[in-house]
Amino acid sequence: MAATKTVLSAFVWSAAILLAATGMALAQYPNRPISIMVGFSAGGTSDVAARILAERMSQSLRTPVIVENRPGAGGSVAAAATARATPDGYAIMLSDPGAFAINPIAFPQNARYDSLTDFVPIALVGQSPLVLVVPANRPFTTIAALNAHLRSHAGTANYASSGNAGISQFGAELYLKRAGDLAALHIPYRGGAPMMEALYKGEVDFGVAVLASAVALIEGGAVRAVALAAPSATPAVANVPLLERLGFPNSTMTSWVIMIGPRGMPPDVVARLNAAINDAISDPGVRQRLLSAGIETYPPATPAETGDYLKGEVERYRAYQTELGDRLTR
Fold first, then answer.
1. Angle ∠(256,257,262) on CA atoms, nearest 5
2. What domains, with CATH codes, occur in the chain?
3. What is the pTM of this model?
4. For residues 164 and 102, what is the distance between their CA atoms, to the nearest angstrom?
């Protein structure tokens, strides 16, 4: 009996010490640098948003917040690393639709994770519409002219994307499908910045880019925007016609950026990060910097609201994939 009491007492004390240590760790969070993983190279939408956020979060959390670029497989490399990370709040990810919704549906062999069970939603950040762009030296200046070029150059026409299985390829194939089941050779690049470089150098015929990756080159005249996949005009490219008004109904498509973390993160840590992100996107200066980069912030949302939004997006992209059939994989 005495031995049993001794073992029980030791167990109780061990549990108490563990709980105390956990509580202390949460109370001290964060006490070392936080890494925001981005699934693309520097200069893309997620990267731009992450760097703006990291600067403000470093101030509010009083610890360094760094951006870690892990490009590959349409964001799936970074997403898989995030899913495997220790769930302590020091490794999180600013995800986009490619990693969270497109890859798991269209390329399950690339996405070795379950979007809805392997991650915890943290906060909504912002969104940027897709824009159809062509090199400035190409003769086609309208979507009608581009369609005609694609029809007359079947077999040789091509387009750039920010990577296999990403939203850029997804948007381009959806456009080609809805323009009359057109075809063009897909040339993937490792992120939005290299994709845009190929476009302004005239190496490809067109590309569907996230506005945040393209806005500076559009404004500078290095590339030409022929259509915007947004429900209404966007201040950054106010004169670009909307796909919805060019004979492409239900063509609104945006690339969102949403913060997620590995499953199992303590609720207090999730709440702390959520508050820091909502503080950042509520700041007029941060909002303006993001808007100037082509990213419109969402209203502040709770982790639960973020999770509901992500579930809806997965279903939306599942419907898109049904429409596309095998266009992404053939």
1. 130
2. 34-127+255-324 (3.40.190.150), 129-245 (3.40.190.10)
3. 0.84
4. 11
Cβ atoms < 10 Å from Cβ of 277: 25
Hey, what are 101's tokens?
């919704």
Residue 46 and residue 94 in contact, taking contact as beta carbons nearer than 8 Å: yes
Cβ atoms of 134 and 145 within 8 Å: the answer is no
Cβ-based neighbour number of residue 35 at 10 Å = 19
Whether the Cβ atoms of residue 237 and residue 211 lie closer than 8 Å to each other: yes
Joined together, the tokens standing for residue 191 give 């992120």
Q: Which helix (H) or strand (E) holds 2?
A: helix 2-28
- Other beta carbons within 10 Å of 284: 7
- CA separation for the pair 73, 107 (Å, rounded): 9
pLDDT at 27: 62
pLDDT tens digits for range 206-255: 999 999 889 999 999 999 999 999 988 888 888 999 999 998 988 889 99
Output the DSSP codes for 130-184. Answer: EEEEEETTSS--SHHHHHHHHHHTTTT-EEEESSTTSHHHHHHHHHHHHTTS---
Q: To which residue do tokens 């941060």 refer?
A: 286
Distances (CA, A) of 22 to 32, 83, 205, 266: 16, 21, 56, 10
Bridge partners of 128, per DSSP, are: 255
Give the span between the Cα atoms of 157 and 41, in whole angstroms.
26
* Rounded-to-integer distance, Cα 278 and Cα 275, Å: 5
For residue 210, give the amino acid letter: V
* Strand-strand pairing, 223-229 and 65-69: unpaired
What single-letter DSSP state applies at residue 120? Answer: E
CA 206, 313, 92, 122 dihedral sign is positive
Residues in the chain: 330
- Structure token digits, residue 278: 């909502």
Question: In angstroms, rounded to a whole number, what is the distance separating the alpha carbons of residues 294 and 214?
Answer: 9
Write the CB contacts of 225 (distance below 8 Å, at least 6 apart in sequence).
131, 132, 133, 214, 218, 237, 240
Q: What is the pLDDT of residue 198?
A: 97
CB-based contact 127:295 (threshold 8 Å): yes
